Amino acid sequence: NTPLEKEDQEVFNIIENEKLREWSGLELIASENLTSQAVIEANGSPLTNKYSEGLPGARYYGGNEFIDELELLCRKRALAAFNLNPEQWGVNVQPYSGSTANFAALTALIQPQDRLMGLDLPSGGHLTHGYQTNKKKISSSSIYFQSMPYQVDQTTGLIDYQRLEENAALFRPKLLICGASAYPAEWDYARMRKIADQHGAYLMCDMAHISGLIAGEQALSPFDFCDVVTTTTHKTLRGPRAGLIFFRRDKNDDLENRVNMAVFPSCQGGPHNNTIAAIAVALKQAASPEFKAYAKQVRANAKKLGEVLVGHGYKLATGGTVNHLVLWDLKPQKLTGSKVERICDMVHITINKNSIAGDKSAVTPGGVRLGSSALTSRSFKEEDMVKVGDLLHRAVQIALKVQEQCGSKMMKDFVAALDGNQEIAQLKKEV
Ligand code: PLP
């Protein structure tokens, strides 16, 4: 019996159930991964006990000699994992998450009410890149800054750089953000840099989704072109839930001090040292040859999954993928992403509904997002992804049948009609 099992059976059971769910179902959420036992051990360590506001060598609390050592080690590994020269780049490893890393980066780079441009959420961007709707400013990045999002081309699904350049000429942003949560194509960082330079703007990349692929040399590196690069550490990078902010060292621009001050004291309090230890472990792994092989397999698996779906006659945004994620357009089937997500949930295939270029509403998106990172961590190869693609096809066939039988497009009628469906029970067994 572990101490937790003895002390708190309820929480222990919940954790055991979640472990089973993660390892026995098919986890296809593109923003998730399955970390190593070593990362989990560091994350669950007594380092959670320690307060260490400040930076190594300059803390507001005593007793930080080991925490200083840890934070310096984590920084060193972060730079090494992305092949960065410590004379040209620095990094802050304290952000609690990707969202706080992004808000701290904005706080460091621009002033309140300054103008920024990021990829629109319905185009695959993240909330924290300035998301707002026609009616409402949603994210603090659009509440405290003026945002004019740019979009993907509605037919190709690719970023419309020409239109971005034209709109930037009107809006004159102080900050341009590249990076996305649901974009299966490569970025043209050089073009983004050129547009930023036309307005003397900073260029920031939020590489959260693809940072593992960049560390594994399976995606272009944004570091050659950007001033600041943020990332989460728990997606393709396969670490604990947290964020990092990399900043370019520049004699004429004290980004280091501004980023560090923005993280603490502007946006956060004491660092989560257990998390920083777990990030350090993940970054050591990410610099290994095994991780390069992993990143390569992640891409190969996503590509294969896309091909299988296309083989079944489906449409993918941008026609395929060059990274870990597939954006599956279900509009030609006249299905919403929510319905397919619902059936998949019932059979232990975990996916998420996602908007696709051309969707009328972000609330009822016309597609789903699939990612290969977690299954690749479970050693899935291309031949396994063929089976996964076939199972997904079956789920869609069931959804189509149920939709037709229930004679209504409403979600509540659809859900009611799923009750006792034998095909779903059969599919669940096969998964
Ligand atoms: N940036 C991108 C591109 C993301 O996709 C996400 C989350 O999915 C975040 C930032 C936010 O990260 P977190 O959930 O850790 O705040």
UniProtKB/TrEMBL annotation:
One of its GO terms (molecular function) is pyridoxal phosphate binding. The keyword RNA-binding does not apply. Gene3D superfamilies: Aspartate Aminotransferase, domain 1, Type I PLP-dependent aspartate aminotransferase-like (Major domain). Belongs to the SHMT family. InterPro entries: PyrdxlP-dep_Trfase, PyrdxlP-dep_Trfase_major, PyrdxlP-dep_Trfase_small, Ser_HO-MeTrfase, Ser_HO-MeTrfase-like, Ser_HO-MeTrfase_PLP_BS, SHMT-like_dom. GO terms for cellular component: mitochondrion. Interconversion of serine and glycine. GO terms for biological process: glycine biosynthetic process from serine; tetrahydrofolate interconversion. Its EC number is 2.1.2.1. The keyword ATP-binding does not apply. It is an enzyme of class 2 (transferase). Signal peptide: none annotated. It comes from the Eukaryota. This is Serine hydroxymethyltransferase. Transmembrane segments: none annotated. Keywords: One-carbon metabolism, Pyridoxal phosphate, Transferase. Pathway: One-carbon metabolism; tetrahydrofolate interconversion. Residues 4-391 form the Serine hydroxymethyltransferase-like domain. Its cofactor is pyridoxal 5'-phosphate. It comes from Phycomyces blakesleeanus (strain ATCC 8743b / DSM 1359 / FGSC 10004 / NBRC 33097 / NRRL 1555). The modification N6-(pyridoxal phosphate)lysine is found at K235. It catalyses: (6R)-5,10-methylene-5,6,7,8-tetrahydrofolate + glycine + H2O = (6S)-5,6,7,8-tetrahydrofolate + L-serine. HAMAP family: SHMT (MF_00051). PROSITE patterns: SHMT (PS00096).
